Amino acid sequence: MDFATSVSTYAPSLDMHLPTARPFGLTEQSTYLYGGWRDESGALHIVERKFCGPMTAGLWLMTNRTGKVSLAPESLNTVRGEVKRDYSATEHHLHGSLLGKAGGAPEEGLDYRLTPGAMCWREGSVLQLDGSLVGPGIQIGSLDHDEPFFYTSELYKMRGTVLGEAVEGFVFLDHGYWPHGRDWKEWRIFNGTQLSWSAFATEFADGHVEWGQVAIGRQRFNFVAVADENGPVAMDVGTAGGIDPDPDDWAQRIGYQAHDGRTWVFELEPGGQMSQFSAARWGGYRAQAGHIERHGDVRSVKTAFSWGETFMERFREEGVGSVGALLADAGN
Fold first, then answer.
1. Assigned domain for 285 exists
2. In which domain, by residue range, is 179 found?
3. Most CB atoms closer than 10 Å: which of 39, 116, 140, 209?
C-alpha cells in the first residue's frame, strides 16, 4: 500500500495554529519548535521543544562549542510538564511553569508568543529570541485511508541570545496531524516508511532565504518541498534520493532530487551527530545537524542550518545508492 503524498505552500494565519483546528478532519497530535543558530564565534546551537497538547518534556538545547554536538546542562532547568495556553485573534501565548508553582524543581520560565508574522520565544536566561515569518508555509499531506497524515511547517528568521551569546538563525514551527491515540514515534511513518527527512533554511549574502522540507521514503513517501520568501521554488513528489553514510551509520551527505534534476544536498556539520538526542529514540534513528544547498548553486551563503534524520538500515534494505550516483543519473 502506498501513500498518496502531496506538497504545496500556504498562507499562514493564527487560526491554523489553534489546537482545535481540524485539517482534513485530523486532530493535532504534536507541535514542534526547533532550529539552529550560530553565535559570533561560529559555534552552532540547536534546539527542539515538543508539545503534545499543553504538555512538554522540556527543551533540548544542544551546542557544538566543544567540537561535538552535546546537550547543554542548562536544558535540564527548562520548563517541563503542563504549560498555560492562551489564544486570541491577535496572539497565541504559551507560558509558565506549573510544576514550579506546585513546589517542584526550580525551572527557567517559558514565554512563547506567536503573532501574525512574528515570533517571540523566551526560556528564562537560557534563550531569548525574536523573529519574523519567512514567506509562505509548506504543507505535506499523505492522506492514506487507514493511516492518514498531514503536516505543516513555517520558517521564522530569528535573532537574540542563547547561553549569553548573540545568535542569528532560524526556527521552524511545525504541526503534525493524524488520528488520535499514537505518538509520532509509534506511527507508521517513523516506524517504517521514513528513510530520511530533513528540514533546512539557507540565507544567502544578498538576504535571500531558501528553505524546505525534503524526504526519502518507502511507499511513495518522497518529496522535495522548497520555498523562499516569495513563494514555491520546487513542489514535487515521487522524488529520488541518495545517501553517503559513514562507518558508524551517520549520514555524511544526503541527496534529495526533484524530477527536473535539481538536487538539494545535505552536508553534515563537523561534529554534527546528535548522539544524545538520537539515543533517546529507537529503530536506528539518527539525527544530524548540517546544512543543505542546491547542487551547483554558487551564491555566497551567510547562514545555513538543517536538521536531518535518517534510518540507515532502511536505506540498505531499499538499495538506495550514493549521492554521487544520484547526481550522475540526473546529468549534474
1. yes
2. 5-12+24-329
3. 140
Please identify which residue in the block is written with the cell numbers 513528489: 237
The number of CA neighbours under 13 Å toward the Cβ of 157 is 19
Domains in the chain, number: 1
User: Is residue 80 included in any domain, yes or no?
Assistant: yes
Q: For residues 12 and 141, is the Cβ–Cβ distance under 8 A?
A: no
pTM higher than 0.85, yes or no?
Answer: yes
Residue 50 C-alpha cell reads as: 515538543
Q: Which of 36, 40, 20 is nearest to 28 (CA)?
A: 20
Q: Kindly report, residue by residue over 224-263, the tens digit of the pLDDT.
A: 999 999 999 999 999 999 999 998 999 999 999 999 999 9
Alpha carbon distance 326, 256 (integer Å): 9
25-60: b (≥16 Cβ within 10 Å) or e: ebebbbbbbbbbbbbeeebbbbbbbbbeeeebebbb
Parallel, antiparallel or unpaired: strands 194-204 and 165-177: unpaired
Cross-strand pairs, 157: 132, 170
The answer to whether residue 19 is domain-embedded is no
Cα–Cα distance for residue pair 139/8, rounded to 1 Å: 6
Q: Which alpha helices (H) appear in 60-161, and where do they start and end?
A: 98-101
- With CA atoms as reference, report the closest residue to 226 among 255, 199, 247: 199
- For the stretch 72-103, pLDDT in tens is 999 988 998 889 999 999 999 999 765 555 44
Contacts of 208 (CB under 8 A, 6+ apart): 228, 229, 299
The answer to whether position 52 is within a domain reads: yes
Say how many C-beta atoms besides its own lie within 10 A of residue 313's C-beta. 12
Whether residue 200 contacts residue 266, with contact meaning beta carbons closer than 8 Å, is answered with yes
